[in-house]
Amino acid sequence: MLNEEKIRKMIRLSEYEQGxxxxxxxxxxxxxxxxxxxxxxxTLVSVIISAVLFLxxxxxxxxEYILKNALSLPYMQLALWGGISFGVVVLVSxxxxxxxxxxxxxxxxxxxxxxxETLEELKKQNGxxxxxxxxxxxxxxxxxxxxxxxxQALELTYxxxxxxxxxxxxxxxxxxTFESIDKNGAFYMIxxxxxxxx
Length: 198
Fold this sequence. Notes:
- It contains nine helices and no strands.
- With about 200 residues, it is an all-alpha fold.
- The radius of gyration is 29 Å and the shape is elongated.
């Protein structure tokens, strides 16, 4: 049967991968500088769009005054103050984004490192556990609520995996095998193998 330690590790991996792990693994797939630069670029685009919208709303709000005094408005002074204000807002936004993006990346990297270390630990403890843990993650099976048919499908899928020594990675056909056995039962595998041998 599945032991408690394996179940706890698989639950932790599953919860991580289905929760914050999606975002963490996407973040750490980039280099830290690339992630920070992408965040700064997003912030810069957002600030520019916000400034244009703010300027448009301000213009619409004061439209009557602008039309009455169109020839006497100090456009150079307004542009200077607007440019300085915009520059300060951009600078503050970029500095905050640099700090936040760097911290977010480091936190994600720590969590992802723990995730990969747990996967490696499962692999070192027992190759069967590792394979079954990956299969559970892919299939969305929670080990603490595993059904007998799912457990049987796990065991039979691993048995088939062990027969074929050339398989080194988790492939979608192993997930298909698991789902077929879970859906159709153990005899499905036996019957399909007999048909393939004939």
